[in-house]
From TrEMBL:
Record flagged with keyword tRNA processing: no
Gene Ontology MF annotations: guanyl-nucleotide exchange factor activity
PANTHER family documented for this protein: LD41638P, PROTEIN DENND6B
Signal peptide span: none
KW Glycoprotein (keyword) present: no
One cellular component (GO) term of this entry: recycling endosome
Species this protein is from: Probosciger aterrimus
Gene that encodes it: Dennd6b
Lineage: Eukaryota, Metazoa, Chordata, Craniata, Vertebrata
Protein name: DEN6B protein
Amino acid sequence: LVYPYDFRLTEKEKTSICYLSFPDSYSGGLGDTQFSFRLRQSGGQRTTHYEDDGEYNREAPLTLQREAAHYFGYVYFRQVKDSSMKRGYFQKSLVLVSRLPYVNLFQSLLQLIAPEYFDKLEPCLEAVCNEIDQWPPPVPGQTLNLPVMGVVIQVRIPSRVDKPGSSPVKQFNQENLLPAPLVLPSIHELDLFRCFQPVLIHIQMLWELMLLGEPIVVMAPSPTVSSEMVLSLTSCLAPLRYCCDYRPYFTIHDSEFKEYTTRTQAPPNIVVGVTNPFFIKTLQHWPHVLRVGELKMSGDLPKQVKVKKLAKLKTLDTKPG
């Protein structure tokens, strides 16, 4: 289901979004998962709704400009046991597609919308889209109040003239907002220390690899870890912009799969996050591989799952690093 209906996506983009919005690793993980991906736009340049793109991009920090050739996908995936389903599980993803890299804002928005959506389905989307349509445009340097589903999200859009390292000026709006707004300290910054914790001893080298635009594969146990690590790597150069390609989460069904895995030419300048053990073999010729976290097989594995098959792939004994 694509909503609003007039949002035009090519068939290729729809297919890619479908594959990218589900974890492709075997995960016994029940519950809710959030992660992000980045998708190359296919087909020609489409007219944009945003005539003020130029103005926004001139005033926004380089790292937060609106992308012309890529979409960002922000995913909220739910997997719970449900005997009424043929497969025995309820598995659904709600994906927010945007050209803006506001990972915190959109993931926070999904935390509000998705649980409601899984319950009430399309009417919920219609109500939410009507509210979002009323939101003011993102103007760098401004603090915005964004009402949605009975909550007001308050965010400040960073500006190019902000001094690095200084905390943003708190603008107290005179209007007394009820309920008290949900204030997001940042629309896009991840907690770098938390994300880099497993690889802190390599941080200087990783920073240099990013600065040089070297090809890096991030192999992670889940799309959440994979996308957070890739986004952390690309943002650790700020205020410089990472100018190469990056895919926070990448699957074997991606239309760029052949292009990235070919051995007839050097790997492309890209940071790619993967979770499928298949990539251990396919990308072993890449110069830099970063393994994050071990793949713990959950204890309640159904007896039918052949752990032997996995063992052959050497995933279970690959050490992080």
